[in-house]
Amino acid sequence: MPDGPLVGIVLVSHSGPVAEAVAALATGLAQGGATASVAAAGGTPDGGLGTSAESVSAAAARVDRGAGIAILADLGSAVLTVKALLSEGDALPAGARLVDAPFVEGAVAAVVTASAGADLAAVEAAATEAYAYRKV
Predict the structure, then answer these.
(1) SS3 113
(2) Largest CA distance in the chain
(3) What's the Cα-to-Cα distance from 60 to each of 87, 98, 109, rounded to whole Å?
(4) In a 3-state reduction of DSSP, which class is residue 47?
(5) How many CA atoms lie within 13 A of 105 on its CB side?
(6) In whole angstroms, how far apart are CA 10 and each of 1, 27, 88, 97?
């Protein structure tokens, strides 16, 4: 069982259902002990496709336990939204970091690693390593 708070994970997608599904997949695969806090931030407030800075900020606040927050984003403007929030300085909790990783595989790796009690650097490394996953 990990000691102390776990790294939080935020999954930012242009689609609310996609973000929720990836969060469910990643947390489902990480079961068996403590599970890191995961929040989906997908779509626009009216349920359309897009990215909401307010939703990303709220999701980050929900998962913040003081151990850092790994944020994974799916496509262009989702990445730009997270970068803009990070540049504002106070729009996200301290220790929030955009992780350059594939969305699904990276999310699974991040949640499993965070749930094992790893620090933010290890969570980021695990998610980033998902780029090397070969399927053939």
Answers:
(1) helix
(2) 43
(3) 15, 11, 18
(4) coil
(5) 13
(6) 22, 12, 18, 10
Query: Given pLDDT bands bounded at 50, 70 and 90, which one contains residue 24?
Result: very high
Question: What DSSP designation does 132 have?
Answer: G
Q: Shortest CA distance to 15 belongs to which of 58, 44, 55? A: 44
Supply angle C-alpha 92, 26, 85, rounded to 5: 15
Whole-angstrom Cα distance, residue 130 to residue 72? 12
CA distances from 66 to 49, 69, 110 (A): 31, 8, 17
Q: Looking at per-residue confidence, does 1 or 53 come out higher?
A: 53
Supply φ then ψ for residue 122, to 5 degrees.
-70, -35
* 31-75 pLDDT tens trace: 876 789 999 999 999 999 999 999 999 999 999 999 999 999 999
The helix or strand, by DSSP H or E, that contains position 114, with its residue range, turns out to be helix 103-115
Which residues neighbour 28 within 8 Å (Cβ) at sequence distance 6 or greater? none
